[in-house]
Amino acid sequence: MTKDEIKLAYTQAMQWVQEAGDYLRQAMQEGFSVNHKADAHDLVTTLDIEIEERLSQAIRRHYPEHRICGEESQSSGATQLSELAGAVWFIDPIDGTINFVKQQRDFGIMLALYIDGKASSGLFTM
């Protein structure tokens, strides 16, 4: 990707993360389900899955050739990666899920773009 393409991707990612944050703040008031992943301290909510899917869809719509690695990847169809060549997006739909479940404010949405194994841009919103 050229510098201009990376700037455009960053601008788009800012919009996607802001929209996801707006959705999350509204949806957390309406309720959500909580499940355990590997153990009792590893939680996933229905909103984790929804946010990851929303971000994945936005990326695929604009960058179908890019790969996606999401924390909840099994539920969103994201790629499990063995290497970081090319453009790879990393998604943590709710970083701090335990705090989110407890309705504390110490959580956020993370989205990052790596190009050929190097961090190109990253966003985190609370």
UniProtKB/TrEMBL annotation:
Mg(2+) binds at E71, D92, I94, D95. Its EC number is 3.1.3.25. It holds the Pfam family Inositol_P. Its cofactor is Mg(2+). Keywords: Hydrolase, Magnesium, Metal-binding. One of its GO terms (molecular function) is inositol monophosphate 1-phosphatase activity. PROSITE patterns: IMP_1. InterPro entries: Inositol_monoP_metal-BS (IPR020583), Inositol_monophosphatase-like (IPR000760). One of its GO terms (biological process) is signal transduction. It comes from the Bacteria. Belongs to the inositol monophosphatase superfamily. This is Inositol-1-monophosphatase. It comes from Suttonella indologenes. The lineage of its organism: Bacteria, Pseudomonadati, Pseudomonadota, Gammaproteobacteria, Cardiobacteriales.
